[in-house]
Amino acid sequence: MAADATLESRLKARALELGFDRAGIARLGPSEHAAFYRAWLAQGRHGEMAYLARADAVQRRLEPAASQPGLRSALVVCQNYHPGDDGAADDDPSRGVVARYARGRDYHRVIKPKLVELLRWLEAEVGQALPLARASVDTAPVLERELARRAGIGWFGRNTMMIDPRAGSYFFLGTLLLELELETDLAFAEDRCGSCDACLGACPTGALLGRDDAGAPVIDARRCISYLTIELRGPIPRELRPAIGNRVFGCDICQSVCPFNNARFVRLTREPGYLARAPRPPEQTGPGPGPGPKRPDSESDSGRAAAAAIPGTSGPALLDLIAMDEAAWDEFSRGSAIRRARRAGFLRNVAVALGNWGAPEAVPALVRALEDPEPLVRGHAAWALQRIGTAEAQAALEERRAVEEDAYVRDELIAAVPD
Ligand code: SF4
Ligand code: SF4
User: Fold this and answer.
1) Which of 131, 162, 190 delimits the end of a domain?
2) Which ligand sits nearest to residue 258's alpha carbon?
């Protein structure tokens, strides 16, 4: 880069060197979507995501410069996470589908250190500390997508994703809020969705509601599979379970059908950490110093270690997923965004997927899941067994109903085997 290049162009070039795929600079004014955002919250469309509605967080999201006087601009970075195709998992109901963004390493662990490194570089360039600066990747109340639009990255698609016209929407966004007065990029002003509404028709739960009067895309998060399989801590509403199909963590459907994500635009990630994890044997630990996975300390632990592989994230067999005990879950989810669902939530999702598969060969695993220590897992296993409906499934449900003490699970059992 020429020695006389501007600070802004050197900053963006440094971001690309660090592994980001795009970078832009936005002004930090009040949100243009404040009224819409407040109305969306008032309608309860954020579901149980209470952190979105906390008054202080709403204020920081909608007026970042007012809530932190001194902040002037935002650097927005994008990192492509597309790990490649999931084989035939989408069409194989015996396999689970994990959203593309979560098949590899937890993106927070990849992006945040790079943003901090970028900040240190910037401080060295300007010759001063920037104590107000904040690096964020989903970790602070920041309207990343609005800042991305202002930074010229792209537009809000009807699927609510930020779409880069040259690269589609399979990318993470990170932001660096700065007290520096930087020259901003030209905001992206167009809506390139045009007359397309492919995502609205493809959403299996009807979560996408089109654009509001001001042109903002509206989603009812309470119906979105990403919310139901990740954020929701309790039972998945029964009427929505069939539509989830074999999605066990997140959902990419409204991105997959988007014409801007076709092969002409989309490239695979340059970050090896985002590639899907392969199945692997459980970690075997020997004696030795330092932190590390726990040694098997009982016969049953040793037995599991000898028997069960840790599932991969590219189309894992549902029967392998439902068999994960706490130790296997710990290994499966370590360092992965999947951990957010917790074991109870994840196995809840797997039980729903098994019920949607509907195959009698799933019955023995679901009968074992009826004994799971987590009520959430037992309750959804009951639903799945009722869907499969074989004599063996029916007998197991009746047997469990006779001894189950948890009120929620009893409700599920009563719905599955009415008097
Ligand atoms: S992620 Fe899936 S469920 Fe959510 S809006 Fe998109 S298609 Fe619908
Ligand atoms: S599928 Fe069509 S309407 Fe939906 S975000 Fe993509 S271009 Fe826009």
Assistant:
1) 190
2) 2
Number of domains in the chain: 2
Residues 35 and 181 in one domain: yes
Q: Is 138 a catalytic residue?
A: yes
75 beta partners = 25, 176
Q: Amino acid identity, residue 33?
A: H
Question: Which residue, of 168, 190, 212, is where some domain finishes?
Answer: 190
- Let me know if residue 230 belongs to a domain: no
Write out the residue range of the structural domain in which residue 388 sits.
317-419
Strand stretches in 118-181, DSSP E? 134-136, 155-156, 162-163, 171-178
Residues lining ligand 2, CB < 6 A? Answer: 157-159, 193, 196-199, 257-260
Question: Which ligand has the minimum distance to the alpha carbon of residue 195?
Answer: 2
Per-10-residue mean pLDDT for the chain, 419 residues long? 84 97 90 72 74 71 70 95 81 96 95 97 96 85 85 96 95 95 95 96 96 85 96 96 98 96 88 94 53 36 57 96 97 96 98 98 98 98 98 97 97 92
> Does residue 203 lie within any of the structural domains?
no
> Which atom of ligand 1 lies at the shortest distance from residue 252's CA?
1
Give, in order, the Cα–Cα distances in Å from 380 to each of 192, 244, 367.
41, 13, 11
pTM (predicted TM-score): 0.89
- Catalytic position from the list 4, 90, 91, 138: 138
